[in-house]
Design goal:
Number of helices: 10
Order of helices and strands: HHHHHHHHHH
Largest sheet: none
Radius of gyration: 20 Å
Structural class: mainly alpha
Strand content: under 5%
Mean pLDDT: 88
Number of strands: 0
């Protein structure tokens, strides 16, 4: 019987190297959007040819980061329940849940104009946009959000607001764990300031034992 190579072990090593390259790319491109593949290879501790072995070039590497971000978004959205009995709490939870993902991949905001087509960005953000629009529509029906702007337009305005705050993190003019952003999002759609803060604080409190 002929021994076969340990394909599962090889596959694990391949995935580990790919993950290390992507993590180095995330950090290096966050530090400097013009970082070269050589810079990324050095940060990952691999040869430049190894990077090319996993990714055909810069665009493929950015595509890998986008795929990781899209998967993280989809996984996070799976934990957000629909339908929505309480839109204020739902929107606060939505922002608190997605902020860490946005913060981790915020370097993509700098790369989008040159490395990502608008339709690709729309595809990545599509599921989050659909969820946000559903929450805002529910809030308008419940009478807790502004109703003078249609739900789709209000959702896109809120998206632009949150993305602008993420870009301010890139620029060093804003720092947050999601708490202030969630409260600001609620205020932006019409929730009273004190009520917004109370909802966010309640979600941030540790779960009671046995609750």
């Amino acid at each position: 019987m002929i021994d076969r190579p340990d394909l599962s072990g090889h596959r694990r090593r391949t995935l580990t190297t790919r993950t290390r390259i992507l993590e180095a790319a995330r950090q290096e491109l966050g530090r400097d959007p013009e970082s070269s593949l050589g810079d990324i290879a050095e940060a990952a501790g691999v040869a430049r040819r190894t990077v090319y072995g996993h990714f055909g070039g810069r665009s493929a590497l950015v595509e890998g980061l986008v795929e990781d971000a899209a998967k993280a978004l989809r996984d996070a959205l799976n934990g957000i329940a629909l339908p929505i009995p309480d839109a204020v709490t739902a929107l606060a939870r939505f922002v608190l849940t997605l902020w860490p993902i946005g913060d981790r991949y915020r370097m993509l905001l700098r790369l989008a104009p040159q490395d990502l087509a608008p339709e690709h960005v729309d595809c990545v953000l599509g599921p989050a946009r659909a969820t946000a629009t559903a929450i805002i529509a529910a809030g308008q029906r419940q009478g807790v959000f502004h109703t003078d702007v249609p739900e789709t337009a209000l959702s896109r305005a809120l998206e632009a607001y949150v993305l602008a705050l993420l870009d301010c993190v890139n620029n060093g003019t804003w720092s947050d764990d999601g708490t202030h952003t969630a409260a600001a999002a609620l205020i932006a759609v019409g929730v009273d300031r004190d009520l917004a803060a109370a909802h966010v604080d309640r979600l941030r409190q540790p779960q009671r034992i046995g609750a």
